[in-house]
């Protein structure tokens, strides 16, 4: 081959750049590689497949050699991935490595509580540690990219994916999203055990109308910026390596072709240089949305909006070449997308690291211990009339219910790599802790949807023979997560009837609910002596729950989402506006006799109390915390200054406990009506029995900013309330002025 002198120099330069010890930076290496790629190879990088099966098909090997795919998701075994990577690195023309992605949402082989459960711990350090552990396990099996954290705010428990998010509040969710990103990505993306995270689903997915998955989201820009974008901004600020576009339309435009979201906000305002991947088939779904005539239209819309990689559907592969040829898609846009993809692969060290020998990991003692801690911290005690912790006099317990011994369900949604054989259920845990002789067991129902009462007699008999009945109900895992929206929030099946039957025995009864969302269970709560709520707690939920009920651990969870009394109240959330006719406390009902002008022309329901069953931030402990003596460092906050707010938190009980102290503000007068409360800080405080601690927070004007009617981020002088509180409905209140 007659190589020109320049060609030799370019080849030598490229060879130098691609070597691990090349002094050149990532950008130079990316640009040098893009300059060498054919259009087919570029489009290959923009295509992600789920089509890897064991053993690797010869056709797939050929496609990898030809550079047909840049990434695979949720497919193959560690050995398949290692073989495919070897082929890509050593048998393709340019040796561009593959990027293996997977939904490592709340654990990999060791499963932690679902994200909504982790949010109930209000513990960023714990969330980061759990993500770190998940990344370590996934990395060991060749995964380098997870499609998490789900950063969608959800205020509608009918939506199945509320399970996968971090609750209703942008401040709490933002702190926890950032913690997850840090956990997954570690100090450096190329370090062993680090995997790229993915802020999804950008954006507004959690506002699906009717709580029906994939449904339209209509969000005014002020609300979008106040509530739905902040967790994504927190992910971006934490250095998240990728974003995923949402399935839904946002104000009529699919997120996957939404230039406002992807170009104006993500790339423009936030200066984001990471990879943007579509959701599964979301590019081709623009045809069903009615904004693309065909695959070619869909491909053009998505790539022009800035979607770098197409997940699973093949519109890019099938049409981009022709779109470039016709000028409908500038080659520069293709190159921009490929640079984003290659940049991540370089940052992950995929070009420089040898292909690790494939291995299968199993949960280890460290990860299981962390999973148990996470499950314990995520459990929320909603009621306790004194039956907890179980007294020593309780010699025999009856473990009852379809969720008492159901490993799969305990792991919750998105636990595809979870190992049921490692799951310790509540039944197993009580048998281990009390000895089998002290534990009776009756399932009562086959599963959470079972409507048959034929198992009740056995359950009632077990309760009668025991000193206390511990009932485990809730949702099978298949009832929550993606495409699992529910129009009712009641306990499915005949679970309420089962609780009624056990209640009728008169035995002390503790009800533990394992679910993927807030449920409505008013009568169950009335009948139970205590209610412990565990958002699908994961592999070690059993020992965590058992130790909590036995008092060897103390509950500290706090609700990350409001619990409605009935689904008819949805959407219901704490940071609501006051309205011009705020209801008086618990106005309810219409006087008999149909008076012509009944009282109470206020924003309420006439048939149910307008307040939630359990407010945001709520949770009980085995002790009593008192809040008092709120103090402000000054009555006025000057523009550039800070104000310190403090209060005394006293443990008035006889047991130690951990309280999550919360800071809320309210802007009393602004050009745009402001919520009655907004969370602006929280701190977990461990207090011994009898101990009092002063807890302080600082506020600056930036903490008081909001988007005005012109969608400008502003602060406006005036009066503010401030609370230091145990939840969004209580607390000690002070007032200050912003000047
Ligand atoms: C799914 C989900 C997304 C997930 C992706 C890959 O449909 O919407 O969250 O990461 O496809 O499994």
Oligomer: single chain
Q: Kindly report the spatial arrangement of strands forming the biggest sheet.
A: 11-16-15-14-12-13
**Would you tell me the overall average pLDDT?**
95
Give the distance, in angstroms, between the N- and C-terminal Cα atoms.
Answer: 76 Å
> How does CATH name the architecture of the domain at 370-550?
3-Layer(aba) Sandwich
Kindly state the percentage of residues in helix. Answer: 25-40%
Fourth CATH level, the homologous superfamily of the domain at 370-550: Glycoside hydrolase family 3 C-terminal domain
Q: Figure out the total of helices.
A: 22
Radius of gyration equals: 27 Å
Strand content: 15-25%
Look at the structure and give the CATH class of the domain at 370-550. Alpha Beta
Outline = globular
Biggest sheet character = 6 strands, mixed
Which descriptors apply to this entry?
alpha/beta; 26 strands; five-stranded parallel β-sheet; 739 residues; Rossmann fold; Immunoglobulin-like; single chain; binds alpha-D-glucopyranose
Quick synopsis:
This protein has 739 residues and is of the alpha/beta class.
Description:
With 739 residues, the chain is an alpha/beta fold. Among the domains are: 370-550, Glycoside hydrolase family 3 C-terminal domain (Rossmann fold); 577-611, no CATH class; 625-738, Immunoglobulin-like, CATH 2.60.40.10. It has a six-stranded mixed sheet, with helices on both faces. The chain starts with a helix and ends with a strand. Residues 73-74, 103, 147, 200, 279-280, 482 line the site of alpha-D-glucopyranose.
